[in-house]
Amino acid sequence: MPTQTPRPFYFLLIFLLAVATGCSRTPGDGSTCAACHQGLELASETHMECVSCHGGDPDESNEKASHRNMYGPKNPADPKHWDKTCGNCHPYQLDRVRANLMYTNTGMIKNAQATWEGEDGTLYATRQEQVATATGEQLELKSVAELDNLAGELYRKTCSLCHIGVDSNQVWTGSHASGCGACHFPYNDNATYQGQDPTVKGKWPHSASHKMETLPDNKVCVRCHNRSGRIALSYEGRNDGNNSLVPTRNGEPGPDIISGVRNATRIQPDIHHEKGLECIDCHTSRDIMGDGYAYENMYQQTEITCEDCHGSISERPRVEQISRENDEVLRESAHYKKRMKQGDSMVLTSKDRKYSNVFLEEEKIWVQAKRTGKLHESKVITGTPEHSIIGHERMECYACHSRTVVQCYGCHTEYDQRKLGTDYIKGVKTPGQFTETEDYRMIYPFPLALNQRGKISSVTPGCQTFVSVIDPQGEKILDEYITIFKGKQQLRFAPFFGHNTGTKAIGCSECHANPAFLGFGQHVVENDSIEATLICEKSEEKPLDGFITMNYGEVKAFSAITRENSRPFVTNEVQKIMAVNLCLVCHNDPKDPIYQKELDYNALDDCLQRSNSAVQ
Amino acid sequence: MPWTIVFSVLILLCSELPLTAVAASGQIRLEGVHSKLACADCHGADVSLTPQPSSLAVRANGCTSCHQGYDQIFDQAMTTRQAEKHFVDQTFSQVDPEFYANNCNSCHVADCLDCHGGNGHKIAGATQEECLSCHKGYFVGREYLGWAPREDHPRYQRGPKHLGERALKMRPDLHAELGMECKDCHSMKSLIAGKKSAQTCEGCHQPDPAVIEHGIAAHMDKLECYACHSAWAPQEYGSFYLRFGHNNREAEKAFKTPPLKGEYLLRTYLRKQDAPPLGINERERYSPIRPQFISYYSDLRGGEFPLVENRLLGAEWKAFFPHTIRTGTVMCDSCHDDRRRYLLEEPEDRLYRIDLDGLGLMSFWNQQGQTIHHGSFVSPEQFSQITKKDADYTKAYIKRWKNLLGHDASFSRE
């Protein structure tokens, strides 16, 4: 019978092994790496050994020889190496990120195709990847380098700088590393290292520090999410308005310069930002890093909805207890101040998965700010009369609760084949340069239409692209061409949550009595016709800032709303929305009981008729 | 100037010829309504004394022998530009005494020919293009044809050019669509009399009492027609005059602008093109108003000139008449339920936080810290009156919406 080894011996053995493998508080203890990179921040307390991430030779004192077999050498988290580095320990996370839209950009490429040559039945990604769809089918995403047309060019020469497959080093406030490092080793505004290692200090391009951000802050998100929908800007109360670069700051363009020499001015921020919540407090890691399945659009990958925390009209937030010891919530919340434990009732996302930081306690819903640990009570609206208005069950919360929605009208894209443009995917300059000019930007009022959930949502141009192509001989072979979408030449709007939420909703009359909210653009009304005042250069009849017209009571749409099942309002809906004004002029309180049942639009007439006959 | 002397001599030589002026270098042919005049008819016997008989310098004495009294145009706003001078005196002169001379002087009338045919031998009635060569940009004029100023940054300077300016396509004035030109309302007689126009709306139009809004007495008593019928107007919120000095290529590059002609770059914080706010004008009627101007001054010349930044020189509004008339109007709530349209926005309703950008005002749409010339802002008491939803209002409101919903606005019971 073997002698039973005393328990303390195991602990001692583990301790010695840990020291021998470099698992101490000093990075790369005893390695030549540590000897040179003195002062370099620890990536984290669990990421101690230099070579386990970076490779290289920790015993070689010659710099070149020591660095020779490094992964990167700067960024071992780059997709070229991530299966051997980060993914070696975190295969679950890496598998998710490989199918993640922020990496593949499949949706963005698909939409670029839809705008230009049309979709070709193939799905592309920033690199070739073998992924699985949410229905469990295997799917090969082709590399976008093979998409040999204008859509591919556009993606590779413009959009591709903002996916995490490649790094971006030369964009003021907009640079980021590639791979996992894009979010977890954040760059500063000019991509230079500002930490304590004198051998790297001030060098470019590097992350600002070698300390890993387990829970990235908003600055990380804003480095990319500051264009197009500009959600990270709007959330913080910043507006990329008209690029006027005023007011100036210290004699320079101001007040706050962001990538592309644009300036951000101030608007009222999102209420969640005002309360101290950051992007990652609402967005789950599955929203951001993917859930392992490949989606074609971000709205399919995103699992959170407002109703998850605030409840719907009929149902309070849904919860589920943590019952297993390997629940993801336990692992993820290990990094939070308040660690969740078995038995806790966690709030569920729209995909029935648990939030790691939103829970039910003493009949209240609490949101834990992941980085600070601060607890915020989430107000539940279920059953409140102002949210139980019949008809409004079709509305997205943000159709009423958006303060502003960013809208950029008229995107005039020119592709000039006489000039060279950088292909960021292929890493070379090739003939063909894209430039863009615009017509008009605004943030309020904003139009509404039906989205892919069949709900009424704010929409924004997505996109009103007018294409011009100049061939190598200088001939304009396309001039302000409107591309084909769903079989016909038309501009497009896209359902969009502007991330500028307010507690106070848009008022009843503010929306019902202003046809601009229905998609007519700024306008005047004559009898039963609505006449746009900001108009498309190509058609006097059509608003630039809208997508429907009304002539003699008949509503016609001329732009598409992207996504399946999405569409503008039709005549009958427009009439019903406007007919509510007949009630609102007296019943202007959203809590009024008349709105708690189906509105009888003829009630007023019936009433007037009765009073007339009584008089007679 | 030698060429002036040569010209004068030529004129003198030709002065006896009735139809065609002949000169050593060629012919001067008179065209248009004046083609049958002799040189002396305009230039007098001694041409050297009046080489430019239509100019302000001689109070157009070559013209006034026939067009008596028309020299009074030189006493009116287009020449004196009192309002502009006054504005600059109150604002920019404090920081740049030469501002008016260097920046505002190109658009004043100093000669009949400025509007009437250029070279003097083709005199004709003023064309719309001649009017719009000055009445451009932010100043009332080009919106009549449906053109609005674009954003300042080169990114927005695209699309068709109209009289040398890139413009945003807007709905033109109905009168322009019907072929009417400036002169059809703005006659010479009205201009020399110091009136803005010869015609009023009421002069041509009898308001149709069948129109619901016309049936409301307060509308007819208190509103300018164009308070409702001006469909849109360019509005400039925060006009930043950045003084670069001359040939400051570094600053031009930083602010992404092509080389400047003068010392200043104008950048607007925010532009809007929708129905403008309302105030009360000199006639004590409700009228569209707009900033003219909420102006800021920055001295970015560097060197010996100390940095001055974003100094608010004045936040002035003006009652005006946007020439964007349409038969239609905005709906009732746009005026009767919108505090912003009267610059009465509550702090908690602000969307733009210009206070946080250091613009020295709490909001563009709040009267605090702002003034209006020759008129007044709508007071909170007046606003309460406007938003009072009494029985008459309710009846008219319902009628108006029913009108929009169509005459058969009954809904089938499902």
| Number of discrete helical segments of chain B | 16
* Poorly predicted runs of chain B: 4-25
Order of helical and strand elements of chain B: HEEHHHHHHEEEHHHHHEHEEEEHEHH
General shape of chain B: globular
Largest interface: A-B, 73 and 76 residues
**Oligomeric state as shown:** heterodimer
Largest sheet of chain A: 5 strands, antiparallel
End-to-end separation of chain B in angstroms reads 88 Å
The rounded Rg of chain B comes to: 26 Å
Low-confidence stretches of chain A: 1-6, 11-28
Mean pLDDT of chain B: 91
Can you walk me through this structure?
The complex is a heterodimer of chains A (616) and B (414). By secondary structure, chain A is α+β, with helices and mostly antiparallel strands. In chain A, strand 18 and strand 19 (488-489) form a beta hairpin. In chain A, helix 8 (106-115) crosses helix 9. Chain A is globular and about 105 Å long. The model of chain A is unreliable at 1-6 and 11-28 (pLDDT under 50). Chain B has 414 residues and is α+β, with helices and mostly antiparallel strands. Chain B is 25% helix and 16% strand. Chain B has helices at residues 2-14, 39-43, 61-64, 77-80, 82-90, 99-103, 128-134, 174-177, 188-192, 201-204, 217-222, 225-229, 249-254, 333-336, 380-387, 391-405, and strands at residues 20-23, 26-29, 147-149, 161-162, 165-169, 235-243, 264-272, 278-280, 286-299, 308-319, 371-373. In chain B, the strands form three sheets. In chain B, strands 6, 7, 8, 9, 10 and 11 form a six-stranded mixed β-sheet that branches. In chain B, a hairpin with a 2-residue loop joins strand 1 (20-23) and strand 2 (26-29). The radius of gyration of chain B is 26 Å and the shape is globular. The model of chain B is unreliable at 4-25 (pLDDT under 50). Classes of the chains: A alpha+beta (616), B alpha+beta (414). Chains A and B meet through strand 13, strand 21, strand 22, strand 23 and helix 21 of A and strand 6, strand 7 and helix 16 of B.
